[in-house]
Structure formats: C-alpha cells, structure tokens
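Dear H.,

Thanks for agreeing to be a second pair of eyes. The structure we're designing against is below in token form, covering all 123 positions.
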C-alpha cells in the first residue's frame, strides 16, 4: 500500500474507533468505564484531525518534518496506551463484546502506522 493510502486508513480507523468509544460510553454498555471511554473517544477523534493535517502536504516537507511522522508516532503511542489500559481492565473485569472490537481496531491502527513508517523511511 502507498503511504497516503495507509494514512487515510489510519484516519478512517481513528474516526471509527472514536465514534465507537463515544457510542459505547453514551449507551452505558460498559458500566464504570463511561468517562475513560469518552476521553479516549475524544482523543481518537482529535488524533484523526492531527494525522490528516498534512495529508495534502507538498512533496518536499519542511525542515525536520517528514510528512506527519510525529502524528503517526503519537497516534501509535496513544493506541498502544489505550490497548494496554483497556486490555488490562478487560482481563480483570470482563466487559461487553464492543471492547475486544476496539482493541482490534487499535491493533490495526498500530500495524498501519508501522507500515507507514517503514514505507516513508525506505524511500
């Protein structure tokens, strides 16, 4: 996949998981996790705009800026944090089927981000 396609995939997955987190929190499908789901839903949605910010950047990036590398790394770190926190809570307390689906989306975002980083740095 081309880096731009991977970036659009990451943006789409971030929007999807952001809305999904907010919907699960709003429906109170995971009692006791409402505030954390809401926080991560807002963070993921905000990250989608951060990653998108320079999708249409010109071919030559600004000095020290590699077409959104920082945005991708921050996104991967936040997804890994959400996966670790949510996963440990899920293992300890269980929860609805929505949570493992969110974990799968987090893993997909991390994988797409890693692929994007490899493609950008091998040019």
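And this is the sequence the design step returned. I haven't edited it by hand at all.
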């Amino acid at each position: 996949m081309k880096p731009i396609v991977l970036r659009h995939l990451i943006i789409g997955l971030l929007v999807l998981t952001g809305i999904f987190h907010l919907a699960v929190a709003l429906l109170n499908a995971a009692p006791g996790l409402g505030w954390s789901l809401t926080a991560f839903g807002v963070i993921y949605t905000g990250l989608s705009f951060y990653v998108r910010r320079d999708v249409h950047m010109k071919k030559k990036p600004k000095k020290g800026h590699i077409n959104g590398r920082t945005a991708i790394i921050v996104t991967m770190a936040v997804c890994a944090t959400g996966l670790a926190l949510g996963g440990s809570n899920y293992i300890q307390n269980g929860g609805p089927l929505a949570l493992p689906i969110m974990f799968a989306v987090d893993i997909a975002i991390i994988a797409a981000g890693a692929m994007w980083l490899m493609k950008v740095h091998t040019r």
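Two observations from my side: The chain has a mean pLDDT of 88. The chain has one domain: 3-121.

Warmly,
E.
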